[in-house]
Amino acid sequence: MYSLLIAVIYLIFISLGLPDSLLGSGWPTMQVAFGVPSSYAGYVSMTISFMTIISALLSPRMIKRFHTKWIVIVSIFLTVMGLIGFSFATSYWMLFALAVPYGLGAGAIDASVNHYVANNYSGSVMNFLHCFYGVGAVISPNIMAVALSKARWNEGYRWIAYIQIFILFICIISLPLWRKNETEASEKKEEVAGIREAIKRPGVILTLIAFFAYCSGEATCFLWTSSYFAGVKEGLSDRLIASFGSLIFGGLMLGRLISGFVSNRLGDKLLIRIGIIVEVIGILLVMVPMASFVPAAIGFVVIGTGMGPVYPAIQHMAPTNFGERYSAAVIGLQMAAAYFGSTFMPMIFGNIQEVIGIGIMPLYLLIFAVINIGMLERTYTVLKKSA
Fold first, then answer.
1. How far apart, in Å, do the first and last CA atoms of the chain sit?
2. Is-contact 192 64, C-beta < 8 A?
3. What is the model's pLDDT at position 387?
4. What letters, b where the CB count within 10 A reaches 16 and e where it falls short, cover 267-298?
5. What pTM was estimated for this model as a whole?
């Protein structure tokens, strides 16, 4: 039963990763179809992320009232609605209405499952879990690439929706597997602290800034990697450009796979430090001034590999750093801060690159990497003093 439930949770995170890389990989073609500037991808991404912020902030209340399994079912259903809606969109403005279910589903499932795993499983399981998020995020740009070569971008969204429907079916038939931890979880629900109480804990605000910085860089890569190659490298086909959207996700998957094997030995703090150093090395590789796309492609994989352990490690530390009573609210706040960065910073970058050029992207990523490690190191100091 334990192994089967873990397998289902991994499958849930594959479903979470599937929609996240579709917009970035398909946008170079979608913007032509809709007849809008390249920066308009940022507004759609912002709307999706804004809805995710709302559901993440509501997650502590939902976790207290409903079991994780029901939050998962409803959330996947909402993302299916959004994906199918995107596949039938005939104008740019339709994407904003469809972004509502698209985003609401992502925030609730992310916060609730992360809280569930952080309180019930080891750091190794948490890293493997987020590795499977990378599996989903790697699959979808390649499906979009096939759709662009064989059909249209609409079919890419539709095919991903079919996969999500299959995962939803698996989740429904696996509902009995969650019974193992239901009794213990129901006893803890009364102890769950609210948002206002949790945000006053020492170090919480610093981790929120760190999460904001991390996801600002990550989401910028999600949305603009394909466009970076289209704008900086010449002579590349639409299919090849779309497939570059999977580079960052492949790196994330690799980084989390490695972390899953070593996290219990190294610990969350050391994993984060090593990860950000690797991320900076990847950024420097992207900066290499060569006509060939190969160094930049390798660089984005390295960036993703470095980013890999950061997100799951911060979340896994929440119960240890702030206590189980506050962990649901802290993780919900972290998710909201993360998606706040995902909402605005890719959009801001879109406007910056229209003026300066998309070649500025590596420097933009470097700024957020520095903020991320700076805030986390400050958090450790504050927590040590408060202890």
1. 38
2. yes
3. 66
4. ebeebbbbbbebbbebbebbbeeeeebeebbb
5. 0.73
